[in-house]
Amino acid sequence: MVKYLQMLLWPFSLLYGGVMQVRNALYDKAILSSERFALPVIAVGNLTVGGTGKTPHVEYLLRLLHNYKVATLSRGYKRKTSGFILAGAQATADSLGDEPFQYYRDFPGVAVAVSEGRVPGVQKLQALVPGLEVVVLDDALQHRPIRPSFNLLLTDYNRPFYQDYVLPAGLLREPRSGAARANAIIVSKCPVLLPLLRQQEIVACIRKYCRPETPIFFSAFRYGGPVALGPQTVPSGQLILLTGIANPQPLKVYLLKQGYKILQHLAYPDHHTYTMQDLQKLKTMLQTDKYKNASVLTTRKDAVKLAGADLQELTQALPVFYIPIEVAFLDNKEKFDKLILQHVRPGVK
Description:
Layout: H1 2-28, E1 41-46, H2 54-64, E2 70-74, E3 85-86, H3 93-96, H4 98-106, E4 111-114, H5 118-128, E5 134-138, E6 150-156, E7 184-188, H6 196-207, E8 216-223, E9 227-228, E10 238-243, H7 249-257, E11 261-267, H8 276-286, E12 295-299, H9 300-306, H10 312-316, E13 320-323, E14 325-329, H11 333-344
Parallel strand pairs: 1-5, 1-6, 2-4, 2-5, 6-7, 7-8, 10-11, 10-12, 12-13
Antiparallel strand pairs: 3-4, 8-14, 9-13
């Protein structure tokens, strides 16, 4: 059925892919102009619609670059504002978007901004942030008006770009050839014990589309211990899983391996804006016999929204926890770190 649907949609994919190829060619040949800046601008992006783990990898870069004056710039997807905003004391998930607000909460030394236009966004950051040394762009691979000094492409191990097709037959935002713009590629969400032979097979598939010299890395998620938002200090073994992310499956697999029993999964769409009605529904569930001993577990991305001013009081009255996520490289971590640090400041050893 899926293959039949793909066949029906294939002509539209050819049309869309052709338009994207023409657009890219116009930028590559400088017929359409793109702005490059004097300071390092690192873009983290993907070819695929949906989650490839951009947020944890952006956070990895922010930790790696902690000795520099860093700013991160995002579009601010699904925020309720428009234009350029530099995060300050009044920032919320509504004003910035959930991921930028997460950066703001977790990285107090980083200047966090949102702007639909990346070029004016970087220009304003340079004007407003004294001593700015490097900008990390979140989800900007297809934003061609800006020309980053370094493109970091992510591809999901479970859904690699080289096995996918352009929208609407597949989930690619542009043809696979877009990988040629990458300065480095990370295969994300890998199993921790990924055999070397399998890694070599994946590298061979990616090499068909990227430049020969492009380094390819493999990363996995490393989950931390549950962090309480509510009155409980330790979650029970029975869970209501609450997510508003693109792909919650890796988290579900991890929790089951840890011995948790997932009684119910409340799976909202990616970037879901939680409401008082959502939390009231959760509270009502917890009062029933089936869920009376359950804890609620969510992601860090969801937690920053649940802790917003309008929901915080009710959230803190419920047994809610979030699981922190960090990126762990399967190997060559030092090589990746050196690649980034030498790009930001050539000559760094």
